[in-house]
């Protein structure tokens, strides 16, 4: 008789991007008294260091999650706060050359207590540290009975001493001691929202016994190759007879970019205004935008079909779109070659867009997963607001695509200079694509000025002027260049300047307002850590 194998009910594995909704739901169950993580923060944690994020899955349900990152000992062992060391909760301070693993999140569903999931997640971290031959693991651990016993002690250190001596009981500290962690001090003001711990944490470490503590390893990031080929289409505005002719014009450039084996092709902002050229009479600005919005389903379907057929990821410029709440928004459709379609609305309409077309700004901006890693989209004017690019990069984006539509050199240079700044300050690639030419009787296509380009940070691995490639001004063309994403990783870890790593998180960070423009204001509070035996 052949014994039938059964599937394991419980698995601890590396977190995947597809787990993000379940992790967000888990955090909401655990952190009932706090505004929990949003999808963008979890996306950043996983994108910035996927090897350090684990989930516990029981009967196909995510019931545990932990996040960690590599960081240098001079940071991991020094006084810090949770927001400071985690880069605002997204793990952006991950350093691939760091010799310590820092744990900054561990939560377990209250429904599965008694299954030792906290211990299993700790073991996954320890295994990772041993495999990488890291010096050890550090984190800030909760002390949930501190407030209850505060009158019996003379401070956090005295409380810790009494717990170690057995005079007081703290389930989290005892759990961590039992798992081989040792306290090296206390972290005041670590997490102010943790009222039970009075905002204080125990600075816990585990030292890897397989590493020489007197001479810890020094890690260097190899100058690897992770090539991505990018095409940016500087498109000529032209009259078309119908929708199919417009699609044929777009298909031509997609086909050429595909022949060159490009991974991405970017089209300009509002390039679909060409669809107004075959209207029988000139439309008012409001009528024109409403008419364009009628083409939205056909545009989405046509671009998605092309992306799969030509095996290329298409960033479809932008297109005025009627949303479910009745607003007109300027939306970029990102059609991936696996058939997925993502949307990114323009957050900041220009004064002219608001006045003439009544275009409303969007509420969300997030990194988009692709087969070449996370990317971001900033539509024209959005590139002039640095906090948006910073959010995308915090979520893991390494390439930011900026479709634009400018009528003058001054307008173009505003976008160009800001995009170059975004590439430098975020140590990422920025790709620009604009319209050229004009369309009589079509508002906002009277004249156009563009010089599309692919911009880089300014450091030794990159082009000497920070320009990987650029088109000739005001000429329809396709500009193609290879970029090496591994150069970004090297520059962030070992570059001449390290803009991302050197941010002063002890002074400032960006808090995204989760209410959007239609919700009610709720003050943001940080997550407090697991309510089981966790912390860190």
UniProtKB/TrEMBL annotation:
Record has Nucleus as a keyword: no
Q: Does the keyword Hydrolase belong to this entry?
A: yes
Domain CN hydrolase per the UniProt entry, residue ranges: 228-485
What are the N-acetyltransferase domain coordinates in residue numbering? Answer: 10-209
Superkingdom assignment: Bacteria
Where does this protein have coiled-coil stretches? Answer: none
For this UniProt record, the keywords arranged alphabetically read as follows: Hydrolase
Q: What would you give as a GO molecular function for this chain, any one?
A: hydrolase activity
- Record region (Disordered): 516-536
Q: Which InterPro entries match?
A: C-N_Hydrolase, GNAT_dom
Write down what this protein is called.
Answer: Bifunctional GNAT family N-acetyltransferase/carbon-nitrogen hydrolase family protein
């Amino acid at each position: 008789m052949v014994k039938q194998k059964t599937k394991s009910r419980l698995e601890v594995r590396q977190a995947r991007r597809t787990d993000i909704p379940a992790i967000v739901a888990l955090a909401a169950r655990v952190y009932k008294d706090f505004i929990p993580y949003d999808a963008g923060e979890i996306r950043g944690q996983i994108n910035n260091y996927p090897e350090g994020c684990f989930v516990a899955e029981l009967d196909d349900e995510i019931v545990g999650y932990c996040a960690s990152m590599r960081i240098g000992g001079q940071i991991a062992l020094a006084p810090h706060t949770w927001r400071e060391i985690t880069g605002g909760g997204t793990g952006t301070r991950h350093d691939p050359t760091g010799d310590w693993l820092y744990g900054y999140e561990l939560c377990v569903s209250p429904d599965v207590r008694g299954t030792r999931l906290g211990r299993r997640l700790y073991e996954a971290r320890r295994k990772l540290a041993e495999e990488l031959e890291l010096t050890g693991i550090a984190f800030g651990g909760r002390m949930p009975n501190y407030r209850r016993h505060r009158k019996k002690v003379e401070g956090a250190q005295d409380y810790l001493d009494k717990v170690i001596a057995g005079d007081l009981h703290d389930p989290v500290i005892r759990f961590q001691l039992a798992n081989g962690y040792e306290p090296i001090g206390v972290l005041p003001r670590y997490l102010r929202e943790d009222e039970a711990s009075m905002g204080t944490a125990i600075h816990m470490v585990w030292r890897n016994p397989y590493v020489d503590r007197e001479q810890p390893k020094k890690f260097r990031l190899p100058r690897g190759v992770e090539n991505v080929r990018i095409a940016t289409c500087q498109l000529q505005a032209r009259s078309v007879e119908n929708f199919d002719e417009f699609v044929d014009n777009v298909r031509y450039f997609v086909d050429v970019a595909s022949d060159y084996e490009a991974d991405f092709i970017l089209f300009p902002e509002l390039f679909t205004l060409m669809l107004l050229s075959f209207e029988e009479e000139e439309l008012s600005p409001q009528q024109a935008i409403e008419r364009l919005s009628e083409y939205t389903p056909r545009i989405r379907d046509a671009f998605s079909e092309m992306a799969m057929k030509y095996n290329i990821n298409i960033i479809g410029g932008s297109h005025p779109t009627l949303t479910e709440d009745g607003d007109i928004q300027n939306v970029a459709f990102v059609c991936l070659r696996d058939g997925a379609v993502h949307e990114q609305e323009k957050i900041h309409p220009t004064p002219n867009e608001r006045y003439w077309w009544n275009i409303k700004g969007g509420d969300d901006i997030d990194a988009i997963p692709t087969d070449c890693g996370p990317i971001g989209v900033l539509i024209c004017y959005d590139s002039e607001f640095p906090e948006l690019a910073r959010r995308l990069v915090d979520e893991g984006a390494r390439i930011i695509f900026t479709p634009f539509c400018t009528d003058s050199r001054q307008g173009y240079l505003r976008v160009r200079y800001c995009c170059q700044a975004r590439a430098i300050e975020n140590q990422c690639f920025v790709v620009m694509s604009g319209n050229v030419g004009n369309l009589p009787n079509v508002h906002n296509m009277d004249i156009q000025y563009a010089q599309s380009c692919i911009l880089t940070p300014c450091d030794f691995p990159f082009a000497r002027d920070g320009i990987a490639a650029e088109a000739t001004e005001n000429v329809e063309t396709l500009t193609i260049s290879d970029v090496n994403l591994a150069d970004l990783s090297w520059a962030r870890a070992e570059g001449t300047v390290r803009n991302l790593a050197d941010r002063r998180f002890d002074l400032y960070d960006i808090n995204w307002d989760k209410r959007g423009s239609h919700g009610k204001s709720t003050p943001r509070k940080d997550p407090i850590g697991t309510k089981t035996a966790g912390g860190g």
